[in-house]
Amino acid sequence: MAHQPDSPEVDISAEFPFDLHNVDILGSQMAYIDTQPDSTTHNGPVALFIHGNPTSSYLWRNVIPHVSPVMRCVAPDLIGMGSSSNPRNLQYRFTDHYTFLSTFIETVIPSSPVLLVIYDWGSALGLHWAHQQAELSNTGSPPRVLGIALMEFIRPFRDYDDFLDREEVRAVFQAFRNPETGRKLIIEQNTFVEKTLPRGVVRGLTEAEMDVYRRPFLRPEDRLPTYVWPNQIPIDHRPSDVFDIATRYHDWLMRTGVPKLFFWATPGTLVSVKKAQWYARNLKNAKTVHLGKGSHFITEDHPKNIGMNIRDWVVDTLLAKAC
């Protein structure tokens, strides 16, 4: 575990080299990347990439090209985010997002074995789905889940100190969750997109990249998802339903033998160095990859490293096992 932090990668492209597809989910449109949309067979293995707040499938633009030669890749824009619809009658709570995402999975990849590539809120959604699959199987091993590649993931946090160990970042999220300041910061000032996002990228983001991330949230009335997400983080048993869900999927994650690929960075945000070292020792059947210097949006700092490690792990571990 003794690693020297490496600098972020250079020449990271802002280009989005994919066509977006659309599918009707519960009366709204969800946009998604699909690297094999015209395949004659759609029951083969799929790498499902799930983003978090306030991003979209654009987050994976420089990761997927390394994985797509060995596996079909699908990456949705969560409802209300990216190029997906932003229905005004939705509260955008965790359970709302999960309903849309689980329906998306059953619509677009209904029978495919799935490699979950998950991050931030995408980790909570993906792990909840995997745990639900395990519960349905009555064996503890979800038959559709080939493996789990995870990074900067959400777990049940005991308190704010457990949530974030950097005081200045912790104070920002406490302000986001304060009813008197949160809406002003996020809805009126778009702080989550304009400040929290670029501060979480060590190399910074170019204007071209920021323009893509801004696009879904140009108007205050479109920013509700970015406001609700930080208020759904399971801290000190609140919100109680999300805390309970996170507790159950985290307990399952720690005991399941499903193959795992765990990425971490220094200093990290949701996953500190100390916590990363704990997970490296305690996750079952896991390969651990230290990326070097990184904060929260580590796919924007180390996309090639992440993509190549996923590709090699798929070939050496997941597909080899399947054969």
TrEMBL record:
Q: Which Pfam families match?
A: Abhydrolase_1
Which taxonomic lineage is given here? Eukaryota, Fungi, Dikarya, Ascomycota, Pezizomycotina
InterPro entries xrefs: AB_hydrolase_1, AB_hydrolase_fold, Epox_hydrolase-like, Haloalkane_dehalogenase
Put simply, this protein is called AB hydrolase-1 domain-containing protein
**SUPFAM superfamilies, alphabetically?**
alpha/beta-Hydrolases (SSF53474)
Query: Which ranges carry the AB hydrolase-1 domain?
Result: 48-303
Keywords of the record, alphabetical order, are: Hydrolase
